[in-house]
Amino acid sequence: MKARWILPLALLIGLPLFAQTSGLHGKVTDASGALVPGASVTVTGQVGFIRTALAGNDGGYAFADLPPGSYTVQASAPQLVMAAVKVSLKGGQQQLNLQLRVASAKQELTVQENGGPTVSTEATRNASALVLTGSDLDALSDNPDDLAADLQALAGPSAGPNGGSIFIDGFSGGQLPPKDAIREIRINQNPFSAEYDKLGFGRIEIFTKPGSDKFRGLFQYNFANDFWNSRNPYAARKAPLHLNELEGNISGPLSRRASFYFSWQKEWVDNGSIINGVTLDQQTLVVSPFNGFFVTPQDRTVLSPRADFQLSGNHTLTLRYTFNREDIQDAGIGGFNLSSRGYHGTNQSQTVQLTETAVLGTSAVNETRFQYFRPVSGATASGVGTSIQVLGAFSGGASPVGHSSDTQNTYELQNNTSIARGTHAWRFGVRLREALDSNISPQNFAGTFTFGGGLAPQLDATNRPVLDGSGQPVLVNISSIEEYRRTLLFQQEGLTVLQIRALGGGASQFTINAGNPAISARQFDAAVFAGDDWKVRPNVTLSLGLRWEAQTNIHDLRDVAPRIGVAWAPGAGKGKSRPKSVVRAGIGIFYDRFALSNTLTTLRYNGSTQLQYTVANPDFFPDVPAASALTAFRATSTTQEISSMLRAPYIVQSALAFERQLPKNTTVAVTYANSHGLHLLHSRDLNAPLPGTYVPQTAGSGVFPLGHPGPLFLTESSGLYNQNQIIITANTKVNQNVSLTGSYVYNRAMSNTDGVGTFAANPYSMAGEYGPAATDIHHRVSLSGTVVSKWGIRLNPLLTANTGPPFDITAGRDLFGDTLFNARPGISADAGTPGVILTRYGLLDPNPAPNERLLGRNDGRGPGQVQLNLRIGRMFGFGPPREGSVATSNAGGGGGRNAPGSPFAVAGGPANGAVAAVNRRYNLSISMSIRNLLNHNNPGPIIGNVTSPLFGMANQPAGTGGSGISESANNRRLELQTRFTF
Fold it and tell me: What is the mean pLDDT of the chain?
């Protein structure tokens, strides 16, 4: 198969065509003479010939190898347009500088004709892509963590099993920049480009702002308080939230050939972390719901300077540095975690990026990029002691993190070359990456007791066993919190360990780690690619590409990834100047690299560096024996390995799309996408007790394949993933005041693994493992855009809605002796079977018989989610008009304080009132950002433990529980923002 791919691609990529061609280049500026980086420049020729380029950091654009003839040149940028320009090319190079002006009412027809979305056979202009610039970015959150969530929601579930990927200025990884430092965001663009290792559907590309030739600046203050927010649905009363955020940026010239851009952000957040579980009253031992909150102080600092240098007429250099630090007091509290499990968390990162761009002759551009990324994280537990996990009820005791730290150093070097020659646009390059990780993790060095519940005697009101007609105890299934209650109760009564165990008490498991907490590892990977966008005919573009990747830490050098795509505009070559319909098709292979963190885990638990002891049904609660004495309690040690046959997982993704240009500046794209994943990662216990030999109630039972107890977790790559989607995307620019983007995704995804941490419920059977994948969200809708009213009020909505995701239902017990609590309940047909539980999924048996059919993986289905975010604001202009700009009056003309020459302008009136404010030297914006305007309850992860008192419910809202700055105390959140620009 590889030979069939490689030979034709090598022949096609090695046949450049030479012809007598022309070139067009120049600078793009605004009315004041300021450069306009990122401006879109389009040349349109006869019979549907269209080519588009983006202006670089210096405002320059270039087209090489254009066939001689007549062309129409059009440029645009957010809120800036220009009239179309005719140019005749007769061979050789020709310079054409373009000047943009602020869109006004007079230019409305031009904006509608040329400023709206269009369809094209260009590989980088697929209509299913989403490009956010200028005011469209206002719909996104200013909080980096919420911003990442917004972007993932817009990208949709179109990225295979691992979700979307984010690139910043062409680099993988790195820290998200402040939103005001972002120039442009592209989502799902050019899905089958060989330049990228990640799936095209779901890829998010972020580009930061360059410097400017005139001093410009922005200062912003954001404020939020719980008094105008709504109560969190998982809190008994409103939790506190207080936010103060200062951010801004300044840019300008350093010299005639250099400019700078500097942004900063400082954020202080006091967030009410909501605890929601079931606990015991320590005096009466009464089981009761527990609901409360704990204030978590947090602060974030972000500094990001950037400098752009014009080294010569053909060489530019960009340097960018980002410093990010997060300090979170009392992190880790909330959900099931009580306040005793808090810890002090810090996250700090430094990023250095260098990009050198060289224009080589008239038809080639070379880019060299380098990134150094150094994230450092730390965690220090607030208390010292043993941890307690009562599954599905609460987690108490001290935090198991101890005093942990992790330091990573990653290096990335890229060199890419673009060549335009005749009807071919070549791009090829290489990427080299190295990652080093030093980790200190005394995780669980103090030990953890786990209570999972199980089959036990039914007790009467006096806590004595209920007997059946034959005098034997009646057995019922008890929850984890009931097992914990019985343990404390009977210990207070002075019963022996055996008596407590016989009455259903005692912990289910004890685990503790010992040994060397420090470990380090490194990983290197390399990739080369080559691609050609070939204009076979004026209305047909063929995109061919080939990529090869390799890495250390796995024995796999076979990662060859061919890509092919074709775009056809039916009828566009029959005298039409611009296509109205485009049909696209593509297929490609995308590999997923084996993460360095997986290697670290294997090195840590290799059987000697750090030992992970497990004791089933421990009889020493709450005392913790020394690790050296655990052998007397039949402790087992866990070892982890990586299969020598492991291969890098990959996805074969294919798509067929129809794109159509509609009236009123609207485009619609309908895409069918298929993803077929092979060699996906999962894990397996090679030393689980042989079937039928393990008795959960008997410690140390079981016959082990390796002749000794102790799990051996092996990471393998035999997982399977299948996904089918129908994606409908619409973009419209009704006029200069209304632009909207919407999408609908119908999705079906099936797999037998959700990642390296997935174990089969039965270690000796894969029955029921192939089921809904974690990404199996059937329906998803998104809508975003910008609407400016006649009073100059700007509205930026962002609506996302989806049906419920799947979740796994577990028995909450270790049924197979592999130390895992991922076993799934059986499906019972007899309501009289002891311990069965009636659920919406049928009669579930947490203690299935050996031949009883088990519930399938991810058979649960959570509720849907709806999130409507809205930013509403108004801009006021002050001072004299900007140099080179034309102040416009409100509709009705006639002067007033918005008349031409007036020192004060309000963003009011019809369309051109907002233009008047933008044209002023100083602008003041007042806005309100509202997250979850509808106050809809969006549940977080659904609790799948069938023995939990909260089974089938969530105990926290979606989007909580991450490691970054959290603002989750309230359900509907309002944030007042004041921004001053000059």
Answer: 85
- Predicted pLDDT at 21: 57
Q: In whole angstroms, give the CA distance from residue 920 to residue 927.
A: 19
Q: Which domains are seen in the chain, by residue range?
A: 20-115 (2.60.40.1120), 453-507 (no CATH)
* Cβ-based neighbour number of residue 517 at 10 Å: 19
- Give the angle 453-459-463 at the CA atoms, nearest 5°: 105
pLDDT at 916: 53
Selection from 478, 216, 208 nearest residue 321 by Cα: 208
Task: Specify burial of residue 610 (Cβ count, 10 A radius: 0-12, 13-18, 19+).
Answer: buried
Grouping H, G, I as helix, E, B as strand and the rest as coil, residue 721 is strand
Distance CA 276, CA 297 (A): 20
What was the pLDDT predicted at 71?
A: 81
More confident residue, 362 or 274: 274
- The 10 Å Cβ neighbour count of residue 286 is 10
Distance CA 960, CA 336 (A): 12
At 1-59, the pLDDT tens digits run 444 444 344 433 333 333 345 678 888 877 655 667 767 788 876 544 567 777 765 67
Backbone angles phi, psi at 80, to 5 degrees: -130, 140
Q: In a 10 Å sphere around its CB, with 0-12 CB exposed, 13-18 middle and 19+ buried, how is residue 755 labelled?
A: middle
- Pairing verdict, β 92-95 and 22-29: parallel
What's the token pair of residue 242? 């207080």
Q: Answer whether 251's CB lies under 8 Å from 260's CB.
A: yes
Structure tokens belonging to residue 389? 């996990």
Give me the sign of the Cα torsion angle 916, 918, 922, 926: positive
pLDDT exceeding 90 applies to what percent of the chain? 58
pLDDT in tens, 283-337: 899 999 999 999 999 999 999 999 999 888 788 899 999 999 999 999 999 999 9
Q: Kindly give, in sequence order, each residue whose CB lies less than 8 Å from that of residue 561, ignoring residues fewer than 6 positions away.
A: 194, 197, 546, 547, 548, 549, 588, 589, 590, 591, 650
Question: pLDDT-derived band of residue 892, with 50, 70 and 90 as boundaries?
Answer: very low
| Three-state secondary-structure class, residue 502 | helix
Q: Are 511 and 450 in contact (CB under 8 A)?
A: yes
Say what the pLDDT of residue 647 is. Answer: 94
**Which token pair is 604?**
């840590």
Q: Residue 979 has which token pair?
A: 């921004």
pTM of the entire predicted model: 0.84
Q: Are 446 and 385 in contact (CB under 8 A)?
A: yes
Alpha-carbon gap, residue 346 to 964, rounded angstroms: 9
Q: What is the pLDDT of residues 354-390, one digit of tens each?
A: 999 888 877 788 999 999 999 999 999 999 999 999 9
Which residue in the block uniquely carries the two structure tokens 């990225």? 159
pLDDT on residue 46: 56
> Do 957 and 972 meet the contact criterion of CB atoms below 8 Å apart?
no
978 and 220 in contact (C-beta within 8 Å)? yes
Sort strands 98-99 and 40-44 into parallel, antiparallel or unpaired.
unpaired
Tokens matching residue 12: 């096609």
The residues, ordered by sequence, that sit 6+ positions from 361 with a Cβ below 8 Å of its Cβ are none
* pLDDT of res. 102: 55
Length of the chain: 982
Residue 888 is encoded by which pair of tokens? 């416009």
C-alpha to C-alpha distance for 191 and 202, rounded to whole angstroms: 9
| Cα gap 263→283, rounded to integer Å | 55
CA distances to 100, 118, 788 from 111, rounded to whole Å, are 12, 12, 15
* 826-827 and 806-807 strand pairing: unpaired
DSSP alpha helix (H) spans, 436-523: 480-492, 497-502
Position 428, amino acid: F
Q: Residue 816: how many CB atoms within 10 A of its CB?
A: 23
- Judged against a pLDDT cut of 90, whether residue 274 lies above it is answered with yes
Q: Which two tokens stand for residue 980?
A: 């001053």
Phi, psi of 134 (to 5 degrees): 55, -130
